[in-house]
Protein backbone atom coordinates (compact mmCIF):
# COMPACT_ATOMS: atom_id res chain seq x y z
CA UNK A 1 0.00 0.00 0.00
CA UNK A 2 2.98 2.30 0.46
CA UNK A 3 3.49 2.31 -3.31
CA UNK A 4 -0.16 3.25 -3.87
CA UNK A 5 0.25 6.26 -1.59
CA UNK A 6 3.38 7.34 -3.45
CA UNK A 7 1.58 6.95 -6.78
CA UNK A 8 -1.33 9.06 -5.54
CA UNK A 9 1.06 11.76 -4.38
CA UNK A 10 2.78 11.74 -7.78
CA UNK A 11 -0.57 11.97 -9.53
CA UNK A 12 -1.53 14.99 -7.42
CA UNK A 13 1.79 16.66 -8.16
CA UNK A 14 1.37 15.99 -11.86
CA UNK A 15 -2.16 17.44 -11.78
CA UNK A 16 -0.83 20.55 -10.06
CA UNK A 17 1.91 20.94 -12.65
CA UNK A 18 -0.61 20.45 -15.46
CA UNK A 19 -2.86 23.17 -14.06
CA UNK A 20 0.10 25.54 -13.75
CA UNK A 21 1.26 24.71 -17.26
CA UNK A 22 -2.21 25.28 -18.67
CA UNK A 23 -2.36 28.71 -17.02
CA UNK A 24 1.06 29.58 -18.45
CA UNK A 25 0.01 28.50 -21.93
CA UNK A 26 -3.24 30.45 -21.83
CA UNK A 27 -1.45 33.63 -20.69
CA UNK A 28 1.35 33.32 -23.27
CA UNK A 29 1.03 35.70 -26.22
CA UNK A 30 2.67 35.52 -29.62
CA UNK A 31 2.71 37.69 -32.70
CA UNK A 32 2.07 36.42 -36.17
CA UNK A 33 3.00 38.53 -39.16
CA UNK A 34 2.51 38.62 -42.91
CA UNK A 35 3.36 40.92 -45.76
CA UNK A 36 6.81 41.56 -44.36
CA UNK A 37 5.35 42.77 -41.08
CA UNK A 38 2.69 44.96 -42.67
CA UNK A 39 0.02 42.95 -40.81
CA UNK A 40 0.67 41.76 -37.26
CA UNK A 41 -1.75 39.75 -35.13
CA UNK A 42 -1.33 38.97 -31.41
CA UNK A 43 -2.91 35.77 -30.04
CA UNK A 44 -2.91 34.30 -26.56
CA UNK A 45 -2.62 30.60 -25.76
CA UNK A 46 -6.39 30.17 -25.98
CA UNK A 47 -6.22 31.49 -29.56
CA UNK A 48 -8.04 34.68 -28.60
CA UNK A 49 -7.03 37.59 -30.81
CA UNK A 50 -5.49 40.22 -28.54
CA UNK A 51 -4.65 42.77 -31.20
CA UNK A 52 -4.27 43.48 -34.90
CA UNK A 53 -1.95 46.04 -36.47
CA UNK A 54 -2.26 46.94 -40.14
CA UNK A 55 0.11 49.31 -41.92
CA UNK A 56 -2.14 51.95 -43.51
CA UNK A 57 -0.13 51.87 -46.73
CA UNK A 58 -1.54 48.45 -47.65
CA UNK A 59 -5.18 49.42 -47.25
CA UNK A 60 -6.59 49.56 -50.76
CA UNK A 61 -10.38 49.77 -51.07
CA UNK A 62 -10.04 48.47 -54.64
CA UNK A 63 -8.36 45.25 -53.44
CA UNK A 64 -9.85 44.10 -50.11
CA UNK A 65 -8.96 40.46 -50.87
CA UNK A 66 -5.25 41.20 -50.48
CA UNK A 67 -5.76 42.61 -46.98
CA UNK A 68 -8.05 39.71 -46.08
CA UNK A 69 -5.37 37.24 -47.20
CA UNK A 70 -2.67 39.04 -45.20
CA UNK A 71 -4.80 39.04 -42.04
CA UNK A 72 -5.55 35.34 -42.45
CA UNK A 73 -1.86 34.58 -43.02
CA UNK A 74 -0.85 36.55 -39.91
CA UNK A 75 -3.43 34.67 -37.80
CA UNK A 76 -2.19 31.34 -39.13
CA UNK A 77 1.41 32.34 -38.39
CA UNK A 78 0.49 33.22 -34.79
CA UNK A 79 -1.48 29.97 -34.41
CA UNK A 80 1.53 27.96 -35.57
CA UNK A 81 3.70 29.75 -33.00
CA UNK A 82 1.20 28.98 -30.20
CA UNK A 83 1.07 25.32 -31.26
CA UNK A 84 4.88 25.15 -31.25
CA UNK A 85 5.05 26.79 -27.81
CA UNK A 86 2.52 24.32 -26.39
CA UNK A 87 4.40 21.37 -27.89
CA UNK A 88 7.67 22.59 -26.39
CA UNK A 89 6.09 23.00 -22.96
CA UNK A 90 4.55 19.52 -23.13
CA UNK A 91 7.91 18.05 -24.11
CA UNK A 92 9.47 19.75 -21.08
CA UNK A 93 6.76 18.42 -18.80
CA UNK A 94 6.83 14.85 -20.06
CA UNK A 95 10.61 14.75 -20.13
CA UNK A 96 10.57 14.18 -23.85
CA UNK A 97 8.47 11.02 -23.61
CA UNK A 98 6.19 10.79 -26.63
CA UNK A 99 2.48 10.76 -25.89
CA UNK A 100 0.34 8.12 -27.57
CA UNK A 101 -1.22 9.19 -30.89
CA UNK A 102 -4.51 10.98 -30.34
CA UNK A 103 -3.78 11.61 -26.66
CA UNK A 104 -5.24 14.98 -25.78
CA UNK A 105 -4.53 16.93 -22.64
CA UNK A 106 -6.96 19.49 -21.23
CA UNK A 107 -5.64 22.30 -23.42
Name some characteristics of this structure.
Ybab, Chain: A, alpha+beta, 3 strands, 107 residues
Task: Give a written overview of the molecule.
Helix 1 (2-27) packs antiparallel against helix 2 (64-94). The protein has a domain at 27-94: Ybab, Chain: A (2-Layer Sandwich). It has 107 residues and is an alpha+beta fold. The chain is 53% helix and 17% strand. Strand 1 (29-34) and strand 2 (39-44) form a beta hairpin. Strands 1-2-3 form a three-stranded antiparallel beta sheet. The chain is rod-shaped, with a radius of gyration of 20 Å. The mean pLDDT is 86.
Structural class call reads alpha+beta
Radius of gyration: 20 Å
CATH superfamily of the domain at 27-94: Nucleoid-associated protein YbaB-like domain
DSSP helix fraction: 40-55%
User: What percentage of amino acids are in beta strands?
Assistant: 15-25%
The run of helices and strands is HEEEH
DSSP, total strands: 3
Question: Secondary structure elements and their pairing?
Answer:
Blueprint: H1 2-27, E1 29-34, E2 39-44, E3 49-54, H2 64-94
Antiparallel strand pairs: 1-2, 2-3
Quick structural overview:
With 107 residues, the chain is of the alpha+beta class. Helix content is 53%, strand content 17%.
